Amino acid sequence: MLNKIILLILLISSLFSETLEVKNITFTTENDSDFRGDNDYTYGSEISILFYRKDLNNSLLHIPFTDYKLQDNYISFSYAHQIYTPEDLKNQNLILNDRPYAGYMYFKSGLYQSYNKTLKSLVFQLGMLGPSTNMDRVQEVIHANIGSDVPEGWDNQLKNELVIQINYGYKEYMELSNKSVFIPEYGFELGNASTKVFVAGLYRWGDIPKDYGSTQIDNTNANKIPLDPNRQYKNAWSYCLNLSFKANLIARDIFLDGNTFLDSHNVDKNIFVAEVGYGVSVNYGHLSIDYLRKHLSHQFKTQNRIPNYGSLVISYNF
Length: 318
What we know:
mainly beta, 9% helix, Put_OMP_sf, Lipid A deacylase LpxR family protein, LpxR
């Protein structure tokens, strides 16, 4: 499956080889099992490719109501999948006070415009939720191979549903000193998987790369969008520390509210969810590796644990 996804992305890039310039290829994997057992958002992975757009004649590839000719324009293509489970994986019955099992896979394409250390993002997401994703089988195989408990409640997962999302974000790169940067962000998500508004911020300290930072799966922005598309990479080590926060006001979360059009299990979600994160970035030449750890406030009323998970982001920059 992964080979087919990579071939599809390469095919897309070859069709536009004269107008697109590859800027980075990124692989991200996320898991909660490094600190505790699997539950809540338990696993995700994504592969993405970011292009710099040299041809600006196609008006369909611009963010509306922006002066694209004055800006550096990028486009990304991504494939991702995610797994959500309740806390008790051995229970075959429906667990009424815990979140439903859910498997989700999607394709994503984003338009990005950078100008004067600001970044606008408009992301389109088309995906599928439910048994047709085979995420139950993916988790069962992984757990069997690592000797972990095989989840037994996937018969209660959310039903098949086509997902359509439009997400918007705005970032600003603010240099506080030659060793520290603050990147505030705000935006919204609109669709049958997620409808919310958010504000966020990222503080970086150290040898800071000249980009808008790394992001976790299913966030609005792409990874490692440079401030300057002609940025040069030196064969030298650099490191920086990252601290982040995010505040979400949520109208809909399909992984808690259940299916949109069909009857399914759901829980009573919290409409306000806060997030804090920390991590480190390591760079050498064209290669960058980021580890990010995120902790969230309770996402629904009967949630026992504070959810948290880690993200490993590996990028090769051109």
